[in-house]
Amino acid sequence: MLLQLGIMGVLVALIPLTLVWVSADANKYRKLVWVTLFLTFDLIMFGAFTRLTDSGLGCPDWPGCYGHSNPLLAHEHINAAQEAMPTGPVTWGKAWIEMTHRYVAMAVGVLIIILMVIAWRRWIKSGRTDRNFRPWFPTALFLFVCLQGAFGAWTVTMKLQPVIVTIHLLLGLTLLAMLVWLGARQNEHVPVSALGRKLTGPATLAFVLLVIQIALGGWVSTNYAALACEDFPLCHGKVVPEMDFANGFSLWRHLGMTADGDFLPFPALTAIHWVHRSFAFVVIAVVAWVAHKALKDPGLRKTGRWLLIVIALQLATGLATIYLDWPLAIAVVHNGGAALLVSLLVMLNYKARYATPVAAGIARIATIPARDAQKA
């Protein structure tokens, strides 16, 4: 079964690899980095779809489906489960959604292995001098995708335990952020002025706040608390509704249960939803402010403009999930918006730190007194 699953992952990976091979881009390594990034973004979106359609246990074992490499071979088990519970966690549709998610995840792993191998070969071939192929970051990506795979397995074997599923989501977005950083290193950027470099601190703060908000959003999703407050801007008609923070934010517990094994009370779900909703306004304010500042620098203007667009999209989709009773398509788009914000803020942080003009270094040398310059 493992060999068959590995072959499936390679076959899926051959599609983006072929696109890179036949592309007109002279820098195939750079192209492969960005294609891997795009596939990882798709994987995160499809992971959200898997979670939101309650397909996480569509195949209740790991890495295969009832010990097989695809649902077709497990048809007897799936038929029996579907007949026993037609709307339960195991159906034909959910099994295929879950296994498709795993196939794409394996393909991303294959592409990251290829990136690592290319980096090591090119770096050694260059006599360990080519900075564009330093292998440490691609190697870290490989180790990180192995960790992500482990949490993917625990997500299934621990029956969608909220803290494991939330960590799995955060690790997926961290993998995306690492690929954006690697991709940024391969690109040429418009130089950033001294004004733009002053945004390094605020951009870092915005990124940290966004990570906290995504963790809160993941906690909402994994606890199925998206409709715990069905009105806005109030919640159950109150600014501060009845909430149970102790049970809502008790991390180590089973899905829908308290740490003591009782059913999770509704005020706990309200607390989870209300905290995510309230903190969103802090994140929106800070990210919008950083994006507005970025518009003033030519090197950051494009990224800042996209940040404003996506943060507005996040606000709109967040409100739509409440007013429209959580439609699946909008919920998936909301998850994708979070991934886009992560990507854009990583790019903004990279540019603010490293896209500095060469002339700036020359100008600093020109300010050194002639006597000191001669000593240098």
TrEMBL record:
Keyword Transmembrane assigned: yes
Keywords for this protein: Cell membrane, Disulfide bond, Heme biosynthesis, Iron, Membrane, Metal-binding, Oxidoreductase, Transmembrane, Transmembrane helix
Keyword Transcription: no
Residues annotated as transmembrane: 6-24, 31-49, 103-124, 136-157, 163-182, 203-222, 271-291, 303-322, 328-348
Cellular localization per UniProt: Membrane
Pathway assignment: Porphyrin-containing compound metabolism
Highest taxon, organism lineage: Bacteria
Main location: membrane
Membrane topology category: Multi-pass membrane protein
PANTHER family attached to this UniProt entry: HEME A SYNTHASE
Protein name: COX15/CtaA family protein
